[in-house]
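User: what does the whole thing look like in 3D?
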Amino acid sequence: MRFDTVKIIFTDVDGVLTNGDLLVLNNGLYGKIFNTRDGLGIEKAIAYGIKIYWITGRSDYATKIRAEELGCKYVFTNGRTKEDLIKNILNEAKLKKDNAIFVGDDITDVRAKSVVKYFLVPQDGHKKARESADLIINKNGGKGVLREVIDLILNEE
Amino acid sequence: MRFDTVKIIFTDVDGVLTNGDLLVLNNGLYGKIFNTRDGLGIEKAIAYGIKIYWITGRSDYATKIRAEELGCKYVFTNGRTKEDLIKNILNEAKLKKDNAIFVGDDITDVRAKSVVKYFLVPQDGHKKARESADLIINKNGGKGVLREVIDLILNEE
Amino acid sequence: MRFDTVKIIFTDVDGVLTNGDLLVLNNGLYGKIFNTRDGLGIEKAIAYGIKIYWITGRSDYATKIRAEELGCKYVFTNGRTKEDLIKNILNEAKLKKDNAIFVGDDITDVRAKSVVKYFLVPQDGHKKARESADLIINKNGGKGVLREVIDLILNEE
Amino acid sequence: MRFDTVKIIFTDVDGVLTNGDLLVLNNGLYGKIFNTRDGLGIEKAIAYGIKIYWITGRSDYATKIRAEELGCKYVFTNGRTKEDLIKNILNEAKLKKDNAIFVGDDITDVRAKSVVKYFLVPQDGHKKARESADLIINKNGGKGVLREVIDLILNEE
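Assistant: Here's the predicted 3D structure for the full assembly of 628 residues, as structure tokens:
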């Protein structure tokens, strides 16, 4: 696989940047558990000139906070499909399918495969997502999946 | 096993929708860790017309918040047995034993087996629950047990 | 091993009732993660007439909250050794060494072995604790260690 | 390997004292999960006269709270390299390279190897860190890595 044309990474959040866990406190607060390994990789990729978009079907302020702290764009689907969102973002950025990869872990992510160069899936992604993957990542969701992807792109694996 | 008659899912909470972990903060707040994979499955099952009841022996506001966010009913046993609760709910909904499954992980869940079609138990359920199970789910509690059950029902496994 | 004389259980907290994790929030709040499987076992043991003491070298309000919610005694060592504390508690309760077991996971717990009938250690306890154990529990700390102990005592394993 | 000259331990935080997880709540609070096994080891090492510095590239109040509670120094790199920081601290304390070890888990930690006696890496550290390690620790990050290091130094393994 060749990653030298990649200029933009789209990533799902739950199950990729987290292991899908959702903390709920009995006062109504929510929390998610991200991983600093992904954070280090993201900072490197951005310094290298790669744009990173977090696309999530679940509106969540904790996710927005973490995405923006790391210099990523936070995109809530709000009913739109991920493939439509990705196409629009690529158009506006004057980038092509060949410049984009998408990391997702579940059935609803599979259709976005058609609008990017590669569709990558965490080791513990849903069976139907893994069956459609161009590459299955060694790490499980929340344990450094995006870092492994970025190491591949930057040849630091 | 045939799931085509299933119209209602009863599920225990601790050990099924969570791995049994209970976060306690030193200001008295409690928290539980649910999984978004279950959330996606639940939304699909409800869209398909299946009702989902969360039945718990431990009154907990975090659980109530999460159940209702996903469109499920939250039921606190409050001293009643799970089998009596399930029978009453089935009667009121004019549903039969054949329409119901129950997912539970511990000894106290086993007796409810008699009032549903199938009793399903997470991979890491208590030995006595696994011995009584009609089916042992591949996932551990809190890691997508209900999602796997729903994938079976909707043929998306 | 015979548990029929056991009337009192002493248990360490960190590494036994938790996996040793300590959540620290950046506003200074602390949290610990207990497991509801232990909770169910504790309620059964207490209903059976067994007393349970949580003994910890780290003063912690979250631990106190959870111990007392379950009907256990919370004891902070406050510089005293665990073996001295256990001896005093046994004396006051007019119980003998033969009536007591102690569950601990670390080097500092080993000396308390001398004042109880059995010293039990989680699967992932410190090597030096495991070497001194009368019995090594199958579960890891925080994953139902005390439940497994109580199942042994109540013959529900 | 000989640890008898070690008088000071430098340790990375994320991925060593934690497993890299970063809890983000939707009110903006952050949290990290430390382990009490490390805490016990740290208290022993300090009682033995060993100094411990936590060096992190991510400014974080939760980390500062935990470091200082245990009697360790909290050092935020704030753009400086870890090797420069370590050299300065050794100079000020009139200690030599031979008196220092460094525990780190990622690529950015490798260069600090040159200014300490040994560079130690958790079992689940980054491949490039493990390749440069003088010793790979059996434990994963957040599961007692520093405790294992201190047990080696104090011959309590």
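In plain terms: Chains C and A do not touch (no CB pair under 8 Å). The mean pLDDT of chain C is 97.
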